Amino acid sequence: MEPAVLGGKLASSLVAPLVKKLFATGGPGAGLVDRPVRLTHLVAFRGEQRTLGEKEVRRLAGRLVGASLDSPGEPPFPPDETEAVTDALTARLLALGDLDMDDVQAVRLGHQELAKQLQYRSPSATGGLSADACYFLDSVTEWACLHILEFFTRRSTFVARTLVEQSRWHAELIAKVDVLIARTPRPDARDTAFERRYLPYAAEQHNRITIYGIDLRDSPDRWPLEVAYLSLEATGDGERAALPGEHAETERTVRLPAEDALLTHDRVLLRGDAGSGKTTLVQWLAVTAARSGDRIPYVLPLRTLIRAGTLPAPAAFLTAVGCPLTPPDGWAERVLSAGRGLVLVDGLDEIPAADRHRTRDWLLALIRAFPGNRWLLTSRPTAVRPDWLTAEGFRELALTPMRQSDVATFVQRWHAAADAPEYEGKLLDALRTKRDLARLATNPLMCGLICALHRERRGYLPTGRKDLYDAALTMLLARRDRERGMEAVELSEEAQLELLQRLAYALVLSGRTEMEVETAEGIVQRALPSVASAAGQGDAATVLHALLLRSGLLRRPGEGTLEFVHRTFQDYLGARYAVEEGHLDVIAGRADDTQWEDVIRMAVAHARPGERAVLLRRLLAEDTPRLTLLALACLEHATALDPAVRTEVEARAGALIPPASKEDAKALAEAGPLVLELLPGPEGLTDAEAHGVTVTASLLAGQEPVGALAVLRRFRDHADLDVRRQLVGTWDRFDAHEYAVEVLDHLERTGLFLTCATAAQREAVAVMGPWACLGFRGSHRSSEMLGCVADPGAVEQLHIVANPEVTELGELSAFDSLRLLLIHCPSARGLGQLAGLSLTDLLIMEAADLTGLPDLTTLRQLSVDQRLPGTRLTDSLPTGAPLAYLYLGDDAIAGTGLRGLSHWETLGAVYLAPTTPLTAEDWAEVRRLPQLALLYLNGCLFPDNLGPMPPLPGVVDLNLMDLEGDEDIAVLPPLLPDLRTVTFSAAHGAVLDTDRLAALFPDAEVLLD
């Protein structure tokens, strides 16, 4: 019979009333006054309150079986087994009284398990029954048990008893769990406790930078990483999908901060030259990860791991690097399995080549066993081939050399960490002006060495920089590896120097900075017989590879080529070899080539006193400013020298430096950037000499902006107006923000006018203090000009030149303290909207509309270059303004002439530069001006536009402007009988015969502007 059919026959309406009769009704409560109430005490046919006997139970079972047979449908078993089935069901129901449990336990057991308990206690009940009968018996038993449990849950005592039982059970469970936890702490609890100790330890352990190879007395070799860390840039190849219409671009250069290398890629191979900051970056990543708690850092220096022979499994990571903390068993594996690790493997180049492949296998096995972590491997560029880990999903990045701004930041932080701020400024100036020194300071290692040497010598670098290079070479070639605990260096320092200087001299002679590897191998091959310690290390290719890998002085910029990491090392070592070989004639013969300047200076440093004198005399013999100054620069490196030679060099150079005039400055600048480090001042210079020095530095800014800025910066507190104007006028030759911060913002503003031509300069204005006199050249919207000025009310003079963006002049009303305004804006309108300002000076070079000009009644000086509307000046100029000066140029009076000029009786100065001839009527207006004392006449008036000029008594000052030199001005002296002063100004490129011009005015003082 199907279960669905059987279920229908055993409906709840049949079972529930019968089951209810089997149990006695209990009273309310939880039964707490006695021991737990067993089912024996609940059933109605057992216990003291018995209401049913076995006979009654059989009657109930018979009714249940009979009702099933009487229901519609197929009978559940053969009818002749009715009596046997009833007996069996009776036996099972009576077994309820034998169960040793209470109602709460029965409900917890479930109806199926309760049915099995009844079956177990009445095994003989099914004897002789058919399969259908047995099936029916089991099913009706389960249905009966289900309703029995339902009956229990509805009893008034059940809920209360259940809550009591659950409370007891929970209490026992909590007590047992507490005992278990106390006896056996959870692994994650132990891990958390350990990490609370390990992370601070890791942060403190790696929060120190060490400079190896420095043993200077007063310079620290360790300082806090967080103080001195400098964010460097890393580059690599990236991919970009081609845009519609573009050619496919599979690779492009990606630049990012080095510390962000692992943010976008979980596996990175970072390459960098010796001292470029690889280990420092590893430390920084470890410290920041430890402090944030996002990742668990493991710093694994390979030079330390490889000593043990077997590279460590995760469980031995900390032990292998000497960490004194003992982690819980399996902690490292749990960290890596959860993807929480930051594994920093440092120094692939610092282990023997034979160990690199097993290191690769070790690393890849870890990555495959523990995916999801972050992995960084560092190496020098030439240690392994470019695609060494590409197939394993590693992204390759390379640390770039430090930029000028990075160097400045490093120097500042170094001195802050070393508590030596007094030496910082002088070193920064030296790095800016001394080119070879600046080329040396391109990575943290060399910067640190320079800082240490500078401090050791109390703010001075060595008298000759040879000491600096010697210290750098010793550190790079020998001491750094030895003090880092690496294996003995295969090539001695002297052997490396001998080979390197031959390579350097070959490059110097060829005028190149790169060499084919095959050529280099040939040079090494020829040198090996004379370098005994190198000859035993293998063939030329092996020795050259060792130099590339460990010296820190060579690198491979491309496949099949090599170069020196710093040009200054090439020049230094090349000069050393040239002097050793006696090639002074070769060096002196190349003095005209600017590429040999540093070689010559280093040759003087290496040469003996007699050789130095010969070389310097050869330079002086050329009698050119550049070579004379080169000889002067060489004196820095000449520790011992014939006094007569030194005196001659200083005397010859003294005639060039400092420059006494602008012309001398221009001639001095022709000598090139070498001049910058020789320029003196400002102490001990006259104002004219200080001006000459700033002009020279300004002219050299295009070739050597860093050095030029360092010179100009020294003059930022100078009081002379010409010096300050020179500093302002050369702004556009430098980085706008840097020059503003370093120079402009320190200037005394009196007499200075600052002009912005670019968006970068506009942004720089925003970071400076207020400028009262400000100009904008080019396209700048009114909102942009206002936006870059923190206090528009501080601006008193404003020039807006060649600006097509300005349309509504009323927007300039925000400059509410404006007194002078120059407008060269072809689209500008609304002059009348400026009437609310107290303008006293207005210069109109070009505007779209002049109709509002009469409203500006506060003007005292007015200049107009474009055609005025109307037929008289009083039609277009402000008749109510007390004008004292009026400039009329180009087409200004083409329609009006000077008619109406005499209206302004306050005019004391008039400038006439019209393109149309002046008439007798015009001059009559001029003559009627009662206070006219100063007359400006432009060269364009001669000879045809001057017209019938009448005598003008009362004019005491005459300025003749933009003269070409051939004008006939002899007519003027008789017409100006009261002249006391005459000033001549030449047009651009013109030369005036001042003697001839002065002879025309024998009774006046003649000046040349």
From TrEMBL:
Signal peptide start and end residues: none
Q: Which Gene3D superfamilies match?
A: P-loop containing nucleotide triphosphate hydrolases
- State the SUPFAM superfamilies in the record: L domain-like (SSF52058), P-loop containing nucleoside triphosphate hydrolases (SSF52540)
Q: Which Pfam families does the entry mention? A: NACHT, NNH1
Q: Which residues form the NACHT domain?
A: 266-580
Listed name of the protein: NACHT domain-containing protein
Query: What organism is recorded for this protein?
Result: Streptomyces thinghirensis
